Amino acid sequence: xxxxxxxxxxxxxxxxxxxxxxxxxxxxxxxxxxxxxxxxxxxxxxxxxxxxxxxxxxxxxxxxxxxxxxxxxxxxxxxxxxxxxxxxxxxxxxxxxxxxxxxxxxxxxxxxxxxxxxxxxxxxxxxxxxxxxxxxxxxxxxxxxxxxxxxxxxxxxxxxxxxxxxxxxxxxxxxxxxxxxxxxxxxxxxxxxxxxxxxxxxxxxxxxxxxxxxxxxxxxxxxxxxxxxxxxxxxxxxxxxxxxxxxxxxxxxxxxxxxxxxxxxxxxxxxxxxxxxxxxxxxxxxxxxxxxxxxxxxxxxxxxxxxxxxxxxxxxxxxxxxxxxx
Length: 326
What we know:
- By secondary structure, the protein is mainly β.
- It is built from 1 helix and 24 strands.
- It has one helix spanning 2-27, and strands at residues 36-42, 55-61, 64-69, 74-79, 84-88, 101-107, 110-115, 120-125, 130-134, 147-152, 158-162, 167-171, 177-181, 199-202, 208-212, 217-221, 227-231, 250-255, 261-265, 270-274, 280-285, 297-302, 308-312, 317-323.
- Strands 1-24-23-22 form a 4-stranded antiparallel beta sheet, with no helix packed on it.
- Residues 13-22 have low confidence and may be disordered.
């Protein structure tokens, strides 16, 4: 009898080990690319030019790096080596003033700012001249409850991550409502539902990528608006973790020049890189204050040459990375 029991226990142990191996192979992928190398960092806590108080958004355009300096209520602009060039914005809710600027995007000759506390998207010329704003506080079509991210299509349409509104809104250039994904004000974990969405990105073919923040996943929608796929942990179902391809709060997303998807993985203190279909490629970072480490990376932007810039929120600095040579 004892021998039979031992055999049964051995069989159960083997089965459990097999399940662990299968789970690892399916849901914890290995890196398929060499990764990235730290190049430089700039910034420290403060309010002087080149200093930050909670950097929360970043984008690159024309050899310049635009940064949302949230609690200083301003946008700062640098060259690719971190040299300060100019700043604009002051605290307030008037034209050209900012509450808590979040994720950024450039379209044409204009900078679009998700103005979180002011419940609007503000548009500036690249030199900082205020041009207009889109939206107001509310839950109606074209209204916002703390927008976290914005992207603009080739024809000028806006896609806005409405954080507390639990939706993504698609608007015309003048702010007119076209459609939305998600149920206004309601958290959900199923496809097309959101749990505090933080950012959006558009591929050249019009595919929409959504950083579904507290669902710890990426959701993808086709140019026709139909749901295509999701990834992040098992089944992309709000299961967080530190493993490759998993997230613990997604706060920013950008599309690289080769169509790869870069994601700021906030509490895992890293940036992850995927193919357009969600295949894990590589990751870089790690928690700390030393060069090449992060304290809650909140935003990511990729230049045309593949250089990656990261807003290192807790360390009040910007980091610059380049791809490792294969």
